[in-house]
Design a protein that fits this description.
Elements lengths: L14 E4 L3 E4 L2 E5 L2 E4 L1 H4 L2 H7 L3 E4 L13 H5 L4 E4 L14 H13 L4 E4 L6 H14 L3 H9 L8 H23 L2
Parallel strand pairs: 4-7, 5-6, 5-7
Antiparallel strand pairs: 1-2, 3-4
Helix pairs in contact: 4-5, 5-6, 5-7
Length: 185
């Protein structure tokens, strides 16, 4: 069984010493077992991702424009990492909620296959954290507040106001669905 390195030994130090590569900047944190959130620079460091045991990458900022991270499935093919990417801008008007269930399914599939997922955007603060929060709510039944507390214990995150509103809407929808399902029995 793979033993995931702790964030204290890798990610929180921000610099990782590798005799082959030298000093490399890394910015990622394990915010929930087998779920890392980080930035785009770290996402491009395939050697580091492999050392962490990353098996899946979810890029919530896929693209070539400013504030995007230019990776795709082909980028990770040589190291055997499964990839999914969304072309999302970090703007309150962006409908990130359209990707909540797809992201949650991708993360859950990674975990179900004993994988470790790295979710990122450019800075690892807004788009990526929003998708991880949605996963915790959809798949693990956490409230929005509980999901935020859980992730903020491990990483400084700052979903924009529009994304927070969409998470609140998801929270209300999921609470209503749980309430209705409770009455079905």
């Amino acid at each position: 069984m793979h033993q995931t390195p702790t964030c204290g030994s890798y990610c929180r130090q921000k610099y990782f010493r590798d005799d082959y590569v030298g000093m490399l900047y890394v910015d990622c944190d394990e915010v929930y077992p087998n779920i890392f959130i980080g930035d785009g620079t770290t996402a491009k460091n395939k050697d580091f991702l492999k050392k962490l045991g990353i098996t899946h990458v979810l890029n919530t900022a896929e693209g070539k424009a400013f504030s995007m991270v230019n990776t795709n499935g082909y980028f990770y093919k040589d190291v055997g990492i499964k990839y999914m990417g969304f072309q999302l801008l970090d703007h309150p008007s962006v409908k990130i909620s359209e990707y909540f269930h797809v992201a949650a399914d991708f993360i859950q599939n990674a975990i179900n296959s004993n994988g470790i997922v790295y979710v990122h955007c450019l800075m690892g603060k807004s788009r990526s954290s929003t998708c991880v929060l949605a996963y915790l709510m959809i798949k693990l039944g956490m409230s929005a507040a509980e999901a935020l507390r859980t992730v903020k214990k491990k990483r400084a995150i700052y979903p924009n106001e529009g994304f927070l509103q969409q998470l609140a809407d998801l929270d209300n929808f999921l609470k209503k669905r749980r309430y209705e399902n409770a009455w079905c029995y």
